Amino acid sequence: MEGSDPVKVIKKAISETLVFYYPFAGRLREGPGKKLFVECTAEGILFIEADANVDLQQFGDAVQPPFAFLDDVLYNVPNSDGIINSPLLLVQVTRLRCGGFIFAIRLNHTMTDGFGLMQFMNAVCEMACGDTAPSVLPVWQRTLLNARDPPRVTHRHHEYDQVVDTKQINIPLNEMAHRSVFFGPTEISTLRKTLPIHLRHCSSFDLITACLWRIRTIALQPNPNDEMRLLCVANLRSKSKYLPSGYYGNSFALPAAVATAGNLCQNPLSYAVELIRKAKAKMTEEYMKSVADFMVINGRPNLTAVRSYAVSDVTKTDFEKLDFGWGKPIFGGPAMGGVATVPGLTSFYISYKNKKGEQGIVVPFSLPVQAMERFVVELDAVFKTKPLNEVGNTKKGFIRAAL
């Protein structure tokens, strides 16, 4: 692809891919009972091209979430980010002075999940490289995950418990501190050594999640009797017998682990690990059906955000392997944590290789400023090493001036 304009190549590839993924070119509408549906209007998506007088190497450590310059490489077109009656995808391709480029995308999450987005992006890459059709043809069939008739709730869904926010802890995202922490082999080994023998075979996800949930709770300083919730984004694809290859709709639920703040903070890490493993074990086809039935019966309630923390492992989506024809990216994955209807609610687990060449997981997240300061101290005490990485702040000024 040397000598080609990435803007023209990618824009053409997206246009060709939308022929197969035509619902993305439509608009969401809301019907009776708050039922969402896609009207295939062929209005298209939003596409922005931009140029930046910056070389990739100037970004340095800033090529890691949270990106301080995100607003410059993914412009929020006014009145474009609504759930209904708005474009379902927004893409910006920014050319860099060195010949590289930044590809950024925003999606309407009601349309697809991380795996569905990756399927779409793989198709775009294939088209950019000269293919005439995606290797995996898309399957719409949203009725596969419809509620049963009559609906039948068979599980307790703590992720939708109605909880009163007595401390008013939800604050705007732009008033929060944003950081990320890297979990490499050393950090994982340190955490694993704190567990009893029978738990030391647990997954890295369980370890990282237990660590973050516990320290985050300590940092927020809730009442010891307050219930804290950990929502695990669990995907059905690997467990389903009836979701066909090519299905790109949402196929995840958020089973919850619940504990009082006092128990979470005073008990060892193994306590949180056990709770998280039990919550993950709930995720079955029957659990997913029960969620759909629960939504119908209760009028599509919102997730419980009060004293909740949601984690989503996107390491298996392989965004870092996408290739438009210029090779694999320096970084591929969510640009920051905390971006959701409720600020600070969600963190993503992203594959990342640090300066030492260590492969691990980077986790961006957001907290109120004072809570973030306490979080750094607590995490430092766990690892007895240098404090949590603060990303991008020293680079932000000159990068923004050049964009």
From TrEMBL:
Keyword Transferase recorded: yes
Transferase is among the record's keywords: yes
GO molecular-function term, one example from the UniProt record: transferase activity
Entry superkingdom: Eukaryota
Keywords in alphabetical order: Transferase
Pfam families, alphabetized: Transferase (PF02458)
InterPro entries to which the protein is assigned, alphabetical: CAT-like_dom_sf (IPR023213), Plant_acyltransferase (IPR050898)
Family the UniProt entry places it in: Belongs to the plant acyltransferase family.
Protein's name according to its UniProt entry: Benzyl alcohol O-benzoyltransferase-like
Organism: Cucumis melo var. makuwa (Oriental melon)
